[in-house]
């Protein structure tokens, strides 16, 4: 799906939800959509300054907070980075696989994992208010390169 189409979807959702999709929020959304994989707020700030020369760290963090609240991006807690979500029109379970070698982040949407996790929390009398399931390791390509000696 093109970035322009994603942007139009996001604009429609913001309109339906009655929230403002400001120019800065649009810029950060577009930068996130263009970026493949997780990106730090400061890397985003460097790119945003090409569009908005006076942008400061709070500018990016406020935009990211908005994008998080709308489900347009996910926070990769262990990397202190952010990941664009292609599935932002719907609420979905999320688990992340993170390659320690190349930095690839794979977003999973496994309802069974989500249900098992929530069931365990309930069994322990725990009320989940936010959730981040992240696993670190090596992706298929990095494992293959390691096995072939590259």
TrEMBL record:
GO terms for cellular component: cytosol. CDD domains: Fur_like (cd07153). Binds 1 zinc ion per subunit. GO terms for molecular function: DNA-binding transcription factor activity; transcription cis-regulatory region binding; zinc ion binding. PANTHER family: ZINC UPTAKE REGULATION PROTEIN. Belongs to the Fur family. Homodimer. This is Ferric uptake regulation protein. It comes from Zobellella taiwanensis. The lineage of its organism: Bacteria, Pseudomonadati, Pseudomonadota, Gammaproteobacteria, Aeromonadales.
């Amino acid at each position: 799906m093109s970035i322009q189409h994603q942007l139009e979807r996001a604009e429609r959702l913001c309109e339906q939800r009655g929230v403002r999709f400001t120019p800065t929020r649009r810029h950060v959304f577009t930068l996130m959509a263009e970026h493949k994989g997780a990106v730090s707020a400061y890397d985003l700030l460097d790119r945003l300054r090409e569009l908005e020369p006076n942008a400061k760290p709070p500018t990016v963090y406020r935009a990211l907070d908005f994008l998080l609240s709308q489900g347009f991006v996910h926070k990769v807690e262990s990397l202190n980075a952010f990941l664009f979500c292609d599935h932002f029109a719907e609420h979905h379970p999320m688990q992340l696989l993170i390659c320690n070698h190349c930095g690839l982040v794979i977003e999973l949407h496994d309802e069974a994992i989500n249900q098992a996790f929530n069931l365990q929390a309930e069994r322990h009398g725990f009320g989940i208010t936010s959730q981040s399931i992240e696993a670190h390791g090596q992706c298929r390509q990095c494992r293959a390169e390691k096995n072939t000696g590259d």
